[in-house]
Amino acid sequence: MSDLVIHTHDLPDLTVAQLADLPPARLQELDVMLTEFQNWLKASRERMHAALEQRYGEQARQTLMEAGQDFGTTHLADGSIRITVEIPKRVRWDQAQMAEIARRIVAGGDQLDQYIDVEFSVPETRFNAWPETLKQPFKDARTVKAGKAVFRIAPVQENDQ
Fold first, then answer.
1. Distance CA 74, CA 135 (A)
2. What are the pLDDT digits (tens) for 90-120?
3. In this predicted structure, what is the pLDDT of residue 51?
4. What is the CA radius of gyration of the chain?
5. CA distances from 83 to 69, 74, 120, 147 (A)
């Protein structure tokens, strides 16, 4: 096993203005380097998580089960370190069954929002396919904002010019 050492001087510590002023080839080189580093970091973090799961996961679940819990936070000791393990609860609701329950609540005369959180949305592809007469009543309820820009940097190919 080799020790991985990442020195901050290996990665330039530039301001936004300095980055914006870099020559295009250097900007692209830095972008590629950061993408590779990000991919390496993500894969390394996933391996680390798998190793922690392998080493401590069963013990953590057993500790929680002994405390009468399926989910939650527990603390384990291993030599001179303390490991905190959080096992979150993930709840998913069957949408068809929830819709039927919602219909029964409304049919019974109760207010739906007293029992269920409801968020209405329309997929953009459906909205765009609608005729204008159907779109019109929805337009005041629809807000469109730009998302975060995505940039991809690549060398210019001869056939791109």
1. 52
2. 999 999 999 999 999 999 999 999 999 988 9
3. 95
4. 26
5. 18, 8, 41, 38
* For residues 2-10, average pLDDT: 57
What is the distance between the alpha carbons of residues 9 and 30, in angstroms, rounded to a whole number? 14
Residues 75 and 84: beta-carbon distance below 8 Å? yes
- Is beta strand 81-87 parallel, antiparallel or unpaired with respect to 72-78? antiparallel
Residue 77's identity, in one-letter code, is A
H/E stretch holding 51 reads helix 24-52
At 77 the three-state DSSP class reads: strand
Could you tell me the residue ranges of all domains in the chain?
8-90, 95-139
> In Å, how far from its chain's centre is CA 60?
25
Q: How many CA atoms lie within 13 A of 70 on its CB side?
A: 3
Whether 130 contacts 122, CB under 8 Å: no
**What pLDDT, on a 0 to 100 scale, did the predictor assign at position 148?**
84
